[in-house]
Each structure stands twice: as structure tokens, then as C-alpha cells.
């Protein structure tokens, strides 16, 4: 397929996803039954984000304008190891491989086995030639390069197994927020989206707050209490109750509002239904600390101009653009140089 045909197929897929699809709704129900973390609401949110931010003409063409993509090329075979923490979290890699003109061998996560195959079937229905670009596999072999996403533990295995190939291997990263105490009630409420969306399971979810010393927690806890309905989700509640008991038994000091537990902790990765925080005394020293830990950070939420590093507005951590590459590694540049 020529580049123009591939782009056209993607744009038609975006149009389809923005319309009603009863069969897709059935797939979402099946997916939700298989994995209770994938609520219908969260699946709809993920699909809408793909349709509006990845498969709409304006952002797609703006993104592609940054690269010199050949109209036709010699396709390479790219192995994709999918994560399963969020619905369709691996679609972005599939998109990049397809746009670059390569073929993808896709190892699905057992947590998310239904949504992506259906989207690939939709693409095939739009243009039968797309079927030549995707293969769902059980075992990774006969590839020219690999993009694999997982935990720090799985990344060690990926390095050992795929180290001989050109590769992108992603590890654990988390979102953080830098607060000053001057945030408005609206900003703190929007921060709740960064913390709670997808139950906090995404690498872009805020898992840690950096706070000025003597920070007043009351406005923050009050704002986050607006998301209290999340505790009605049984798996989230189980995690909340477990953490609550653990902190009490271990005599860990915590802040709580009924739907989130906050503890002072240096780690950037927090448990489900928990949020870490750490105090800072000087913003310049904090910037040095964030630079030192850059490989642990996926994105930073803060008011504009608070720190020199790139930041996202409150509430926008889970709304990346096509050029907001995971782990800061330009996937498209990697694929085009193969």
C-alpha cells in the first residue's frame, strides 16, 4: 500500500469509531467481563481518544509533516509486545508501524485480547490490503525489530531476549504533579482526572505529588473527594481497603478522604488507590531532583512556568498528542531509520 492509501484507511477507521457501532459495544462488554478494570466507560474513553486525537485528519497530518515518510518502501517486520494496563494502550505502536509502511507481528496482552483484533478487522474491511500489515501471534520470532512495553521486571527479559534486534523497550514510568499551594479549586479538581482516570493504572497517571513544606491538604482532599464514586468499583475498593489496613498495621501516617490514601514516600510508583507525596523546599533543587529521576517520569503536571521542564495542564495527562512519545523516544524516527 502507498502512504496515501494507508492514511486514508486510518482516517476512515477514525470516522467509523466516531460513529455508532453496536458490535463494538458488544466487544466492549466482553472485554469488561474478561477484565473488570476495563469498564465500559474507560473503553469508550480510550476509543474516543484514538478516534479524535490519533485518527482525525488535522492531528494526523500535522504529525506526519514532521517526517519524510517514503510513499513506498521495503517493509520490515516489527514485533510488538503489547501492554494491557489500559484499553488499547498498544494501538499507538500499531499505528506507527503501519504509517511507516512496516508489518507488525503483535503479541497481545492477555488482559486486553479483544479490542485491537476488532479494530484490525475494521481496517481490513475498509481496505483489504491492510491485512498484509498485521499478524497476531503467540510467540515472537522472525522479526527485524521489536517494540516491547512492560514492567521493570519484564524489561530485563525483553533486553535478554530481544537485545540482538533494533529495539525500543519501555519500563515502568509514572506521572507526577508539582504543586505550589496556589492552585485553584478548579485546578485541583482537574488534577483528579490525572490521578483517578483508568483507576490510576496508566503510566501517565499521576502517582506522586511534590508539595511545598507546610502544604495545606484540606483543599486537595476536598477536591479529590468529588471522585468518590470510584470506590464503588469492587476491585478498586479491595485495593483501597487492603492499603488502609496495611498502613494502620504498620503505623504509617496517611491522609485520606474515602477514595484515596496519601502517604509521604520517595517512590514515584504508588499502589492502586494510593498516592505518594514528598515535600520540597526549593524549586530549583526540585528541578535537579526531577532531572535525576527523568527516566522514571512519563509526564509532569503543573501550572505553566513553575518549572523549566515540559509540563501538561491539570487534567490533561491522559490526553497525549501523536508527538508525545512514550518514554520520550521517537517511535516514528526509530521505525523510519530501519
TrEMBL record:
GO terms for molecular function: acyl-CoA dehydrogenase activity. Keywords: NADP. One of its GO terms (biological process) is bioluminescence. Pfam families: LuxC. InterPro entries: Ald_DH/histidinol_DH, CoA_reduct_LuxC. SUPFAM superfamilies: ALDH-like. The keyword Disulfide bond does not apply. This is Acyl-CoA reductase. It comes from Haliscomenobacter hydrossis (strain ATCC 27775 / DSM 1100 / LMG 10767 / O).
